[in-house]
Amino acid sequence: MIRRLDNTNCRALWCCVRASRATLRKLPILPPSQRLGNSRKSSAVNPSGKHKGSLTVAISLFNYRDYIIPCLESVKSQTLKELDLIVVDDCSTDDSLAVVTDWLEKNETAFRDVLLIHHKSNRGLPYARNTAFAHARTDFVFILDADNLLYPRCLESLLGGLKHCDASFAYCLLEKFGEETGIGNTKPWNPIALQHGNFIDAMVLHRKQAWEEA
What is residue 20's three-state secondary structure? Predict the structure, then answer.
């Protein structure tokens, strides 16, 4: 059983950056959602209820039925094993939810924990990502949009970087494909540059603690 609650494409490479910690704030209010099923393997859990070790891949989904399967397959193909997977359907109006449900039922054993969440109304991308973070039970969460793909070593490389430093997050180089080609996310980490606008793609591996404090 799957644990469920009721167009520029990119392949990810990797690099690691350092970010400052934020002050503690009240966690966001989540939109109404539906738990549709679950799949959970036995694994090491610490006293806080979190899984030890690996990370959660959080995929936001809205009307991406033609892209979501390649995205999920790229997560399944990661060299880093014992992954948790959360897919948040933000009330898609196509058959994205049915497509994902079918794939998860066939591939749930490839993951340590699988959770499918369905928003009862469309709330937008920030809400979908906050929902995924709130339900993640690992110390690290990787944000992935449904029309993006990962190279097999992406998550292993990012997690390895964060485990050897105190950075709050690590982000990827991007290989653009389709109508636009090239490499993105090539600028080195520069927090001062952020005052002129965000230059980092959302496809980032976060320490969950940093999200809780932001």
Answer: coil
Residue 56 near residue 27 (C-beta atoms within 8 A): no
Ramachandran area for residue 41 (φ above 0: left; ψ -120 to 50: alpha; else beta): beta
Whether the CA torsion 202, 204, 206, 208 is positive or negative: it is positive
Q: Which amino acid is at 132?
A: A
pLDDT tens for the chain, 214 residues long, are 555 554 334 344 433 333 333 333 444 555 565 555 565 554 444 545 565 558 999 999 999 999 999 999 999 999 998 999 999 999 999 999 999 999 999 999 999 999 999 999 999 999 999 999 999 999 999 999 999 999 999 999 999 999 989 999 888 777 877 777 778 767 777 778 777 877 777 788 999 999 888 7
**Which of 130, 112, 93, 127 has the alpha carbon at shortest distance from 45?**
112
The model's pTM: 0.79
Question: In angstroms, what CA-CA distances link 98 with 56, 58, 71, 181, 185?
Answer: 22, 18, 15, 31, 33
